[in-house]
Amino acid sequence: MAYVVSFLYLSVVKMKKFNILLLIILFGKTYGQAYINNPDFELYTNCPATYGDFANKISSWVSVVDNPDYYKCTFYDTTAAPTNTVAYSGTGYVGFGTYGDSNGSSEAIGQTLNQSFLPGITYSISFAAKKARSGISSQNCGGVELYGIKSTLYSSLSYTHISQVPNTFFLGKTLTVQNTNWQVFSFNFTPSDTMKHIVLTLEKIPNCYQYVYIDALNSNTLLGLNEIVKNNSIKIYPNPLKNSLYIKTELNDFENSEIEIINYLGQAVLKTPFSNSIDVSKLASGIYNLKISSENREIYYSKFVKE
């Protein structure tokens, strides 16, 4: 598998030959809260039976534009957009595509957040995605886009792109999805207003056909009260990994530090005193955040993938 792995809450400005690390101080203790409901698409009310069988099937999610697809239970027919039918995490995942029209119309899914995204706070979202490996919908059109909605969540719109719908706010997007195997994407965003709902869709590219599968969303990467974030002072390897995680640092202030490993639900699944080597062999496959808390309240974050 190929992965795009990002460090969280890190802003690096490159000036000539110097890297300047900007420290971000967030006020309001919000780290570890789960914002997205049913992020891995495992919870459902009824099993899907055919293409477009999305509405009223998958818990917490709605069809915002046209008829996205839900793959779960015994329905894994990917004939129209060929791919390996194995989910990235668990057994459920979703798929949606563009229509190849001059308007750049694209199917879209959305939900009401467990907790709203607030203005002025930087969030991070990550998920696994892949495109169809053959057929007309296997073109390299664009990335997956995230939009926010302040008030009413739309549903059952037809032949449009969510960016053309009133009162929607663009929050960010991934690079173009070109891999036919699961690949982890992530990006940070800072809402300009309170967003109660989110919408996921494909980038608005006119006259281009693309079908993308997504799984395992993760949005629980906010920080705690007055925590100062640094990230270029540590490196973790290998990444992805199977059994052991190794930490490389030239700093000397970790003697009495604590390490936490946090899953996509915001749950600390492992806590241990600082060590340069950690056994993670018993962790389930998935995406995790590594948090190191030093004595002087400096917080170090990094993300890794457990195979």
What global shape is seen? globular
CATH topology of the largest domain: Jelly Rolls
What is the beta-strand fraction?
Answer: 35-45%
**Oligomer, anyone?**
single chain
Keywords:
mainly beta, Jelly Rolls, 5-stranded antiparallel beta sheet, disordered N terminus, 6-stranded mixed beta sheet, Immunoglobulin-like, 307 residues
Structure description:
With 307 residues, the protein is mainly β. It folds into two domains: 11-29 and 228-306, Immunoglobulin-like (Sandwich), CATH 2.60.40.3080; 62-218, Sandwich (Jelly Rolls), CATH 2.60.120. The chain contains no helices and 21 strands. It has strands spanning 11-15, 18-22, 25-26, 62-65, 69-71, 93-97, 108-117, 123-131, 144-149, 168-173, 183-189, 195-202, 211-218, 227-230, 234-237, 244-249, 258-262, 268-273, 277-279, 286-293, 298-306. A six-stranded mixed beta sheet has the order 3-14-21-20-17-18, with no helix packed on it. Strands 4-7-12-9-10 form a five-stranded antiparallel beta sheet, with no helix packed on it. Strand 20 (286-293) and strand 21 form a beta hairpin. It is globular, with a radius of gyration of 20 Å. The termini are close together. The model is unreliable at 1-32 and 222-229 (pLDDT under 50).
